[in-house]
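User: Please predict the structure of the protein below. I'd like the answer in structure-token form so I can feed it into my own downstream comparison script.

Assistant: Understood. Taking the following sequence of 542 residues as input:
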Amino acid sequence: MRLIWVLLVFLLLGFQASGQSFPSYTGLITIKAFPQNKQICTRQKGTNTAKVLIAGTVASSSNYDQIKLSVSVDSLGTFVDTFFSLSYEGDSANFQLEYDLEANLLNHQFILTGVQGSTEVAEWIATDVVAGDIYIINGQSNAQAFLSAKPEDVVEFTRSYFNDQWNDLGHSFPGQWGAHLAKVMSENLGYPIGIFNFADGAQPISYFQKNVENPAAGNYGGMLSRLDAAGVDAPLAVFWFHGEANGWDTSTETYYNSFDTLRQSWKDDFGIEGAFLYQVRRLGCAHPNPYIFEAQRLLAEQIPDIHIMSTTNADQDSCHYRWEDGYRVLAERMAQVVKAKLYGQVIDNQDFAPNIDKIERFNNTTLKMTFKPSGVPLNIIGAPAMDFRHEESGHAPSIVWADGDTLVVQFDSIVNVGEHFSYLSHPGPTADWVVTSSGVGILEFYNQPIVDYMVGLSSSLTQKTNLLMSPNPTDNSCFIQWNEPEIGEIKVFDPLGRPVVAKVKKIMDSGFYLDLSFLPQGLYQVIVQSEKTVGVGRIVKW
């Protein structure tokens, strides 16, 4: 019996089962469902197992009484046997079994045997079968990412289906960052990851849409066909790196709606749990407009199952990304988001790409920006001021600096509430960025409104007022009128928006004196806040 099995394994090495019915080795069984060699069977999150279906029809001429399914773990050499008693109707009998395959880093062998009394004949064998999660990649050439995996990312338990068979990623084209993402996630999760890359360079988003009248057509149809042949019915997520091709003539609204339509097709056909976007870098591959990256930012901000990673602070050649500080780090940054959003792991907020929350006019020439998630300290690399733009004037700020989790910019001319501000980034490798402590760059944003600083204060306050301060200007101290029963908190900011020490000189019934004698000359902003009231004013120290 062992000799028969070895021979059959040898015969099977170059042949893989497809989604269609096929005859067993003896021809006595028509197999309708069976795993393929090296297949990653789709894991169910609730049980951490894959339901592996074994089904077919046995000819009565076989004289088999039973069908036996034997599953072994290669490294352990032990078998789990399941039997199905046959009941013939006419010249055939149907059988169906299910096996719960645990998701782990162990290869499994599936052997289908026909049993007649004490005689057993191996009818079909699949080797190196595992359970895990499947990711789809699509988009343009940055999703293709030079097609082949780096050699160090070709490992046993990251795989794909290509040229009609499952194999390691060295036999397919997962892309550099796709293969690295799979390896990082497999090592983190402790089970296999499959990558299916359908990217096609220089194509607009319309190229990737599902043809409702002919679903088998185009890029989307090719995706459906390949996944079906691989036996994949429920990929967990789609990763999308795209946008340059639409960067000449597509509005923010049009791209937003187009991607949402595509995402809905993925959900309808596969039930994906998340879509993960790389935000396209402005001017990448020479596309001129900022509308696509803004659409991508809004998609992730407004739709709960869309998640985004910035491509700022990554080594780019003005179109594609180099490996070490490009695709490699982009994969590792995205892996952190995947851990949090798909698998519920706790990561530090510094590993998310900061998304603009508010842009506040602090004074005539200064804006203060806060980001989501809040409380993440920001750092300046190089001199990124030229990447920001006041939309009404077209001017960049003269200075940009980080104050904890707040970004401050100062202009040489006046900016007003109701105007607009953008972070446009830049193409190429020049290292001028705003980043978190883990190196993740802030997301690009376009044409966001500038609001008054008071608008950003606590929404629980019932009254907001302008402070009356005299003398103003002053060279020493000033009296600030304040009729509330308590003062609460006093904040003073210098001309660059940085907080300075507030020294209260004397408190009276109608207000208090604020000591400015120790401060250098300049324009200062004062904020006084009690439980229900906030007052804001500006004073000149001379």
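That's the full token string. The first strand starts at residue 22 and ends at 23.
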